[in-house]
Amino acid sequence: MKNTFYKVGIALFVFFAIAYSSYAQVLDKSWKSITEMDNDQWFASVEAKAVAENVLLYQRNIGGWPKNIQIQKALSETQKKELLALKSSTEGCTTDNGATCQEMLFLSKIYKQQPDERYKKAFLAGLDYLLAAQYDNGGWPQFYPLKKGYYTHITYNDDSMVNILNVLKEIKDKTGYYSIQPSEEIVAKTKTAFDKGIDCIIKSQYKQNGVLTAWCAQHDEITLLPAKARAYELPSLSGKESAKIVLLLMSLENPSKEVINAVDAAVVWFEKVQINGLKEERVIKNGKVVDKKMIPDANALPLWARFMELENNKPFFSDRDGIKKATLAEVGDERRNGYSWYTNEPKEVLKKYEKWKNNLSVAVKPVQKAEVKKPKDDYNIVVAQDGSGDYTSIQDAIYNSPSFPYKTVTITVKNGTYHEKVRVPEWNTKISLIGESKEKTIISYDDYFGKINLGRNSTFFTPTVLVEANDFKASNLTIQNTAGPVGQAIALSVVADRVVISNCIVLGNQDTLYSSGEGFKQYFKDCFIEGTVDFIFGGATVVFDNCTLHSKSNSYVTAASTPENSKYGFVFMNCKLTAGEKATEVYLGRPWRINAKTVYLNCEMGNHIRKEGWNNWSKADAEKASFYGEYNCSGPGFQPKSRVSWSHQLTKSEAKKYTLENILGDANSKSNSNWYSN
Predict the structure, then answer these.
(1) Sign of torsion over alpha carbons 60, 62, 66, 70
(2) Is 534 among the catalytic positions?
(3) Domains, the chain
(4) Which of 208, 270, 319, 607 has CA 20 to 30 A from 650's CA?
(5) For the Pectinesterase catalytic domain, which residue ranges apply (predicted)?
(6) Residue 391 region, left (φ>0) first, then alpha (ψ -120 to 50), else beta?
(7) Can you name the residues that pair with 382 across neighbouring β-strands?
(8) CA 643, CA 633: separation in Å to the nearest integer?
(9) How far apart are CA 396 and CA 464, in angstroms?
(10) Is 273 left (phi over 0), alpha (psi -120 to 50) or beta?
(11) 53-92 pLDDT, tens digit each
């Protein structure tokens, strides 16, 4: 009997010794390798559960994780207390070097084997973090909350943004890759975020002499142009980061024409800039690279430089002094040996490209037909990002609305950020675009003059929302151009007659709102409109009733181009003029064309309004041809005695003529005579 117990004991000892040895081998791997393991047995183990406790401890309350931490390493009680104290801190939260995405992958794998609700909660908090960190233009910074310096740039470096988009892709497509499934509402948000991210990638692809090429490791978060990071990471085209970007684009089902063009152009570029006949040779001591050099080798596989000149694709290198070098040999030991200056990653793109191209015709055509559908009611259409409405896109709803209808077509838009350019064509009259709430129903885009680059009239191609159809109404919406302070960038363009915009927020910088059309009349009621230079401009006859006009910089509120035969131009009634901290010297208006007409009645003016009030835009003729007037205004910005001599302070009898009926009414049309009143 003793002998039997002895044998059993030895067997158990051997079993646990082997098991312990295998788990120790796991924990000796890098954190990235552990998160990527396909080993259900280990993720069901006690050791995995211990690691999961570390993952939960390292996560900040905001949902993100810091980077470059071997989370699997055992923690002392003191370290655990320190991590608990850091929970409310947001410092160091990032997606760089795989952070956050790797921890989410680990949580998904252990939740599948050990369904602890804490793992699910932490995974979903990580997803919320990724969604919150995204810029309106679709890019992601390196750190969120934003960290000053180059960290605010859109970061493709080390595949940071591609990693995020791959997470969102699996979730939006409901592939089951992640064992934790978010709500339908969150899935809809991931789809929107993913689409915006792809749009950002397409827009940031660098044009070299008008020809699409590849991407930089970092792009400016406003202009989308290649940007500098660390001293030795200069603006350039990247052979490494561009490869993973293209592989992501090639993974899209039914790719758009823009995506196909981007891939085609990048492949041409990869083939053009590949380096043949050169091999990297390393000297390694004690597991560390102590010397690295490039040597000729006719049989070497193709390589690509990590950094290439924007103008001519010539490879370059640099040390911590930021000075470009022609060869790697010129770089000091520390950076030469401690950084990846060459890559072979584009080989995967070239390997898969031909098959991808051959499959395109099969993949694209059927879905294009299937996407066209008819709403249940042609005159009451619902747009919702979660798929509960007739359409998920506002533009799709408009495109499928009846042309020249006999009655109003009401398009109800549920809360969400709709990252799209919206056009209401001339034939889609009588549309009412009604948001669920003005703060949470957002139409957003980021075109601007330099990005459009179609010549001197590029401004007019930039609107987020363009209204060309008569009898249009919009309410309870935010319409914004998120391009930032980069020049002309229209949020809302209204080139139509009998248009009512009520209870809306219109956001932008220069040229936020364009209201125009000779003889056209428009009515803005209870709106908030902000901008910098000439942020309300155009030639229509427009009444702004009870609106807030918010200046963001020292500039001009209006730039009217009223036609000579128009009796009225821009008329502001009962409005409030406010300003941000940077705006201390703002004019009420200047004449875009010399017959400009702008009048303020019963408006409250902040102290940011210049005492002279008006500017002639260096057009002496405008002082005689234009009409700038005020009546019964108030606030520190209303200084009638100090106004320019060629402006007008209206008399009571003159002011009585400025009624809605007189300005907007149409005596020649019984059906449209009071279109603005309902």
Answers:
(1) positive
(2) yes
(3) 1-201 (1.50.10.20), 205-371 (1.50.10.20), 376-677 (2.160.20.10)
(4) 607
(5) 380-664
(6) beta
(7) 412
(8) 13
(9) 15
(10) alpha
(11) 999 999 999 999 999 999 999 999 999 999 999 999 999 9
